[in-house]
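Re: that chain you flagged

S.,

Sorry for the slow reply, it's been a week of failed gels. I finally had a moment to sit down with the sequence you sent. For the record, here it is as I used it:
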Amino acid sequence: MGLELETAWVQDRLGKAFPACRGKRECDFNGDGKIEEHEKLLDYDKDGKVGSAGDWVKYCQLNLQHIQRKDPFFEWGIAFSADNPIHSILNVVSTEHSSQEIREAYLVLTTVLEAVKHVLKVIKEELKDKDLCDHQKLIVVYAVLDKLGFNFKDKENLSFVESFRRKTVDCDTSALIFIALAHELGWPVYAMKPYAGHVALRWDDGKANYFNIERPGFIVTDAYYTGEKKADPKSIKDGVFMRNLSFKELLGLAYMDRATLKNSRGAKTEAVKDYETARGLYPQNTLMHFNLAQILGRMGKDNEAMPLYKLVIELDPLDSEAHLRLGQMMLKKNKYWEAKQYFEKVIELKPEDPIPYMAMIVVSYALKDPEKVIYYQRRVAELKALDNKKLASLAYGGLGIELYRAGSEKEAADEFLKALILNPENRWLGLYLTARNILPGVDLGVQGMVDNNRNGGVLSTFGLRWRLTSGKKPLRLHFRPEIGYAWTPGHHALDLAGNVQMEFKKPSWLFTGIFEAGAGYRFSLSGKGNEGAFIKYGPALGLRVQGLTMFRLKFMAQHLLSSPRDYSFTIGPEFIL
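Prediction finished late last night. Pasting the structure tokens below so you have them in one place:
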């Protein structure tokens, strides 16, 4: 079998896999009702006695196929006793890994165990049979792991098996290593979840010796975790956090690990089944409920996902992600007040996270609260500026647009300039110039026309707009040079005009009232018909979309000064670009 074995371990493993054979030197491994020659322990190494390590190795090799039906990892995990929880954990996840990967994981764990035993033996000899204190024993394990090249990460998205094989472990997988070692060494070590997203170790002999361990071997009291206030006191009281995890709950972690792998490979239905099993084994683990809710949400089963997110919050009121997901679900259902409550709770829990502020922009739009829209846009811009220039540019630009819609052109220009500095793009330059009234707005119009001779025609116009007044006052003045092409049967003309527009609007108004008056000159293009100076005037009604006037319906009267009896009326839409 290629391993140095202690025969007592082999007998223990075989006795648990085949209880009827415990203490015997023969066993009906294949279950055919009779003992065959290879099912007897004999003097295989020819040393004159039966029961040496070599005899047990050969005995197991001859019957390995049948032994592994009862104990799948008998050969690879022989260094660990049969009731070590590591076997059950690896057995659960083995369906998603090759036998070679499982073997390599066991090999790494065996190497760690043998190294720790060796170091402890040497130290005990140096101390002349005096034992280390409990804390020092755990420091030895950390030192061995470091010497063997293990890398500790705060959070590693690897499966248990991959984590062992690559020697890259986070708090979850390093805790499993310690528990596997402690089981063999007789140490009362447990995994303990002090708060969401973290697993620590606890030495607890059930008597006086009780302490928690953080990498790389620091002893900490319970107050170390409760003082950080990362867990709600009620959650601690209810046993969600700060208690020793049982073997059953560790097995739940294995099913969650397998579910995560299945989900990453697209087997969502199978992943759901494993998460359900995991939740049954470890019902107070919020991450299991959360992950299952995520999968169900992606499968379009929001009604099944929502109670799970609510269960997470019930177990851990400080879970901001669950609040965020519920807020997003309420938003999808157009339940804006409910969404607002969840997003505000996320902001309370994670004030430096821009995501809930972005969500509140949408909610504030829906609740028609422009002041809140601007407030949350400003917060997003301030937060994004901390980590990503491009995203910060978008946030500042979005804030500028909101301020411009609200009529605060000067403030809007300041925000567009910030966006332009962070990410020089033409759109921010254009919006900045527009807000500063350097770049004109563009109007395109097509109106029906009727002259005094009751001739019908069409007037198409192209105009530019410069704002003459700014601020938040309801009345705005614009100067608008315009070129137009007029057509009636048998007559074509070109109009050049300069107009002044008076616009009445407020940020909360859906429509705006406009009165326009101007003067110009008409040039005949057909060699006949009237031409000359004219005046024009009339009202318009504008429609606002997201705070900006995008369309207006105009009614204008136009009089030729050289022939006051020649006039025309136009009515039709004008589009604002």
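What I noticed first: Confidence is low (pLDDT under 50) at residues 1-5.

Talk soon,
D.
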